[in-house]
Amino acid sequence: MAIDNTVTITGNITQDPQLAHSAGGTAYLRFSIAWNQLRGDEQVPNYFDVTAFNTLAVNAAESLSVGKRVTVTGRLEQSSYTAEDGSKRSSVRILADSVAADLKWATAEVSKNAPKVKPQAAPEVAAVEDTEEF
């Protein structure tokens, strides 16, 4: 049975995105967003770590900075680890499938990227004669 864990969060970027590359060359971008949840008369901030990969990471790194309001759609990923003090901890982050400017609070100019990789031509297939009789 497949389980869908898609989440969409709109919030403000709390730190400048950090673009890096894995040992294998995969681009990845890490940043955090925050949104305020209203509890009674109080606004309580909630923080989310976000990671984007490949072309999304590169495009987002060129477009985003601290304070910008964005909408992130992606999947939740939970991980467990042992802290320096020996205690067991866990964290949840969003693996971004898309990141967009929140146009309720700003304007944006969208431009299409030029393809970075030339499309490969389909391989030629040798002609085959049909010799079977039906």
Question: How would you sum up this structure, described in words?
Answer:
It is a single chain. With about 130 residues, the chain is mainly β. The chain contains one helix and six strands, in the order ββββαββ. It has one helix at about 55-65; strands at about 5-15, 20, 25-40, 40-55, 70-80, 90-100. The protein has a five-stranded mixed beta barrel. A hairpin with a 2-residue loop joins β3 (about 25-40) and β4. The longest helix is centred in the middle third of the chain and has 10 residues, at about 55-65. The termini are far apart. The model has no long low-confidence stretch (mean pLDDT about 85).
User: What is the SS-derived class?
Assistant: mainly beta
Rg measurement, Å:
22 Å
State the separation between the terminal residues, measured CA to CA: 44 Å
Alpha plus pi helix count:
1
Strand order of the largest sheet: 1-3-4-6-5
Main pleated sheet: 5 strands, mixed, barrel
Order of helices and strands: EEEEHEE
Regions with little confidence, pLDDT below 50 for 5+ residues: none
User: What is the β-strand count?
Assistant: 6
Please indicate the percent range of residues in DSSP E strands (runs of 2 or more): over 45%
Task: Estimate percent helicity.
Answer: under 10%
What gross morphology would you assign? globular
Average pLDDT for all residues: 84
